[in-house]
Specification:
Number of helices: 10
Shape: globular
Bound molecules: adenosine-5'-diphosphate
Radius of gyration: 18 Å
Largest sheet: 9 strands, mixed
Number of strands: 13
Mean pLDDT: 96
Strand content: 25-35%
Length: about 300
């Protein structure tokens, strides 16, 4: 069993010719509201890949919050831990995608800010009973730290995707079994700029020094630097035509934990996650881009 703890966002996406300057009004197009949020994306990825997935989160009592719980159910996610916060909007991201392919994003936590240590009291038993707990950093640290401590005591394996980047306490890092930063996040956590294999291993060693056994630094299209017991290797990704990399990291994490739940060796679990993430970058949006198990199996069989 897998438990994911994390955020839910409504992504309000607009295509723009360029980013408006202060005081300027521009005509955008193709307005879409797409389900997102790192926690939700990772839970959806795992569930679509057939992991037995429960989700701990807070949504608002708005139309999006009501609908998204139904969507989660349709993806076979156990939503007992998805709380609805009265008189509160669901978390949002305002996303502008320019014609040159750059994006500009502003997020507001809203209901996600309610996922505190007190709010997850009723979820601790499900964390204790899980084989893996997967978390990110878009919800309050007190809730994340509480969940990590409870998991550690119960020998539930803890996977942390430390995104968005921020510094973390040694106490929290000591509870983590597998960490999956990208290059920016690895630098914020360790102070080491990742530019090549040597610096990736240095950053990994710094994280091993905090008590984390397995470090996977994601390198975008290049793949992942996997380090265990101070020894690292590059696990290359798949080459695809990238259309939109939104949720690539989330799809990677959801797929990775699915592979680990199925007791795949680390390198095979990473290959599986690379395939799922590669498919997601060929499609637009967050949860709209996450593939099913059949699609990933077909991709790997090619
Ligand atoms: P994040 O999106 O969190 O910054 P990365 O950019 O490192 O994370 O990407 C995470 C994973 O997504 C990579 O390890 C890889 O599997 C996949 N990925 C990302 N970008 C591409 C791409 N352009 N082509 C193929 N796979 C990609």
């Amino acid at each position: 069993k897998l438990v994911v703890l994390g955020s839910v966002n409504a992504d309000h996406v607009l295509q723009v010719p360029s980013f408006p300057r202060p005081g300027e009004t521009l005509h955008g197009r193709n307005y879409q509201v797409i389900p997102g949020g790192k926690g939700a994306n990772q839970a959806v990825a795992a569930a679509r890949l057939n992991a037995d997935t429960g989700f701990i989160a807070c949504v608002g009592d708005d139309a999006f919050g009501i609908n998204i719980r139904e969507n989660f159910k349709m993806d076979n996610i156990n939503i007992r831990g998805v709380k609805m916060e009265p008189n509160c909007p669901t978390g949002i991201a305002m996303i502008q995608v320019s014609d040159s392919g750059e994006n500009s994003i502003c997020i507001s936590a809203e209901a996600n800010a309610k996922l505190t240590a007190e709010a997850i009291e009723s979820d601790l038993e499900s964390i204790r009973n899980a084989k893996y707990l997967l978390m990110q950093l878009e919800t309050p640290l007190c809730g994340i730290e509480k969940a990590a401590q409870v998991a550690k005591q119960a020998r539930t394996n803890v996977i942390l995707n430390p995104a968005p980047a921020r510094e973390l306490s040694d106490e929290l890092l000591a509870c983590i079994d597998v960490i999956t930063p990208n290059e920016t996040e690895a630098e914020v956590l360790t102070g080491i700029t990742v530019t090549d294999n040597e610096s990736a291993q240095e950053a990994a060693n710094a994280l091993h020094g905090k008590g984390i056994e397995i470090v996977m630094i994601t390198l975008g299209a290049k793949g992942v630097w996997l380090s265990q017991n101070g020894r690292g290797t590059l696990i290359e990704g798949f080459r695809v035509e990238a259309l939109d990399t939104t949720a690539a990291g989330d799809t990677f994490n959801g797929a990775l934990v699915t592979g680990l739940l199925e007791d795949l060796p680390l390198e095979s679990a990473i290959k599986f996650a690379h395939a799922a993430a590669a498919i997601s970058v060929t499609r637009f949006g967050a949860q709209t881009s996450i593939p099913s198990r059949a699609e990933v199996d077909a991709f790997l069989a090619e």
